[in-house]
Amino acid sequence: MLAFLRSIRRKNLKDSKLRGYLVYAIGEIVLVVLGILIAISINNYNEGLKKRDKELEILKQLKDEFKLNQSQLEEKILMRNEGLEAASQILSYFDNKQTFDEAGFYQALWKLVRDPTFDPIENDIVGTENLRMLTNAEIIQQLSRWSSDVYQVQELELEYQKFRSSQLTPKINTMGLGRNLQNELWKNGYTPLEALDKSANYKQNIGESHSKINYDKVLRDVELEGMVATSITFHRITNLQSDYLRNVIAKTLELIDSEIERF
C-alpha cells in the first residue's frame, strides 16, 4: 500500500500536480499513524491480558493462604475453648473436692499448659509491586490491615505464653504434679490437636511419681487456684480477638471469591 502511494506521489510531482501530491502525502501519513496506533492498541491489549493473568494468579495465591490461615485459626480457637472448659473443671474440684477425679484433673491441667499460638502464612503481597496488580480497593484495604489485626491476637498469645512458662508450669512442677501430668497424657496414647498427622496416636510409658501426692493440699492451694482462674481471662480475651480475626478472614475470602468470578 505504501509503495502504491509513493508511486502516485512521484507521478504527481512529475506532472506538477501539487494538490494531488498533498492529498496522497497526507494519506500516506494517516496510514502510517494508523499503523502505529493499531500496533500500540495491540500491545496495550496484550499487556492488559498479562496484568489480568497476574492479578488472577495473585488472587488464587491469596485465597489458598487465607484458607490455610482460617483453618489454623479455628484450631487455636478450639484449643483455647478446651482450655476454658478445663479451667472450669479444675475450679469445680476446688469448689467441691468430693467430685475430684485424678485422671480428669491431669487431663484438664494439660489443656492449660498447651501453647495455642497463631502463626499465619505471611504473604509477599503487601508492600510489594504485586499489590498494585490488584484492582479491588476493599481487598487492598483488608490486606493492608492484616498484619496489625494478627498482631492483636499474637500479642495476647505471647502474654499467656509468658504466664504459662514463668508461673503455671513452675507451679505444677513445684507441687510435684509434673511427672503424673505427663504420664496421664501419654500412657493411653495421645494425638496433639495441632499435630500435622491427625491420624497418628503416640504412646509413651513415663510412669507415675513415686512420691505420694496430697491432692487435698493441692486443692487448697490458693495460688494454683488463682492461676487457673487467670488462664480463663487470658483464653477468653484472646478468643474475643480471634473471633474478630475470624470475621476478617471470612470477609477477605468472600471478596477474593467475588473478584475471581469476574475473570
From TrEMBL:
The chain crosses the membrane at residues 21-42. Keywords: Membrane, Transmembrane, Transmembrane helix. Pfam families: DUF6090. InterPro entries: DUF6090. The keyword Transmembrane helix applies. This is Uncharacterized protein.
